[in-house]
Specification:
Shape: elongated
Number of strands: 7
Strand content: 25-35%
Order of helices and strands: HEEHHHEEEHHEEH
Distance between the termini: 97 Å
Largest sheet: 5 strands, antiparallel
Length: about 220
């Protein structure tokens, strides 16, 4: 090992001073030590930690305990575990998403050192970006609809007959809703007459007309 490479204890001293990265020493039963950053994440005091009241299993949501057990097997067999995401359940009932990795500190008794990254800010940023993208798409769609309506009004002014007008309205409705087809029905008493259609076969139109022609 190079003289410039810090040993695990020296590296821990450096990491434990981090204001954002949680550094925790654990055994299968509880948290043995933790830096201030981790205690802030989970909402415990150093007095509670020193009294042995911080149990990593208790604050872990049940659905993640199987992954934790897998990580412990990896630590026992290989000395490290593959980093994974999990969630802690805080005292106020909120969930704290974290990214967690660990290296084995000792085998007998089994102890390990974890580094824990709070993912809540990252997830909130991703959610905000997704919502912003959604709003932008909705705005684009609304502007497109407004432009189409303006174009439709201009086109309708040039139509000289009712059938032309109805067909133009149907085409506009299909374009606005991005539908594959549509019809315009005219109510005549108790009957309905198809006065415009798009996207339907001749057989369907004839079948529709035959039904409503025989309806009393």
């Amino acid at each position: 090992m190079s003289a410039l490479t810090p040993t695990l204890p020296e590296a821990l001293v450096i990491l434990e001073q981090s204001r954002h990265l949680g550094v925790v020493t654990c055994c299968p039963e509880r948290v043995l030590s933790a830096n201030d950053a981790f205690l802030r994440m989970i909402g415990f005091t150093r007095e509670e930690l020193d009294a042995g009241l911080v149990d990593w299993r208790t604050i872990t949501l049940p659905e993640y305990l199987v992954r934790d057990e897998q990580a412990i097997h990896e630590l026992r067999d290989f000395g490290v575990c593959v980093p994974f995401e999990k969630e802690y359940l805080l005292r106020d009932g909120t969930r704290l998403p974290v990214l967690l990795g660990a290296v084995r500190h000792s085998l007998e008794p089994l102890e390990w050192v974890c580094w824990v990254t709070d993912l809540s800010a990252h997830n909130e940023r991703e959610n905000a970006e997704a919502r912003s993208h959604q709003l932008a798409e909705e705005l684009k769609s609304e502007l497109r609809g407004a432009n189409l309506i303006s174009e439709i009004n201009t086109r309708l002014l040039s139509k000289a007959s009712v059938p032309e007008l109805l067909t133009e309205i149907l085409d506009a409705a299909i374009e606005l809703t991005q539908a594959s087809g549509g019809t315009v029905l005219l109510a005549v008493g108790k009957k309905h007459q198809m006065v415009a259609h798009r996207g339907f076969s001749r057989e369907f139109v004839e079948f529709f007309e035959s039904i409503h022609k025989n309806t009393h």
